[in-house]
Every structure is written in structure tokens, then in C-alpha cells.
What we know:
Structural class: mainly beta
Number of helices: 0
Strand content: over 45%
Order of helices and strands: EEEEEEEEEEE
Amino acid sequence: QEQLVESGGGVVQAGDSLRLSCTVSQITYRPYAGGWFRQAPGKEREFVAGIVWDSGSTYYKTAVKDRFAISRDIAESTVALEMKDLKPEDTAVYYCATKKAYSAREGLYVYNYWGQGTQVTVSA
């Protein structure tokens, strides 16, 4: 089974940048997509960004599209999330995820494997 481990979280000030990375281990098939979600205290987990593994096509939560960028390195089997101009409302636990296969019904919003999460705290 796939194991996903996130890194790069931390405490930063508003306006700072941060890069999160996710290493996908024990992968025995090519994932259809990788993605990032986040969950703020008292809120439901929400989709942030997704990337189709082969094509590199990306999809974003509208509110972060101009500030966040998702990427993947096929050779290293990693998925990254570059975040700039961070705001206090970005504070959350960020989770990396992978999707096994294409699903027209699920799109890039439903994933199968999840990391343990990495905390991002943005102070004002």
C-alpha cells in the first residue's frame, strides 16, 4: 500500500512563502493524480489543489489559485505545494493524497491514500 509523508510545514508570518513536499513510497502503480487538502480547526477538510500525474494538468481551489502552485516529480515520486503570500486564513493541517485511477464522477476531488498531515501556521 502507498505511504505518503508530508514535510515542509511550520510557523510563518503573513506574506511569507512556504513549500510543502510529499513523498509517495511503496507505489506499485502510476497514480492517476496527486493532491493537497487542508483542514483548519473546526472546519471540514477542503480541496486545495490537484495534479494529473501523467499530463501535469492542475486544478485549484479558486481562492488560492493565484498564490499556490502544485507540482509533481515523477522520477522522485513527490508532490509539492508551493505557497506564497500566506495569510492567517491559510492556517491548517495540510494533507497530501493520491488517487488510484480516473473517475469522471469523482474528478480530482476524491482520493484514496492520505498522508498524516503537516501543520502550517500563519501569524498576522
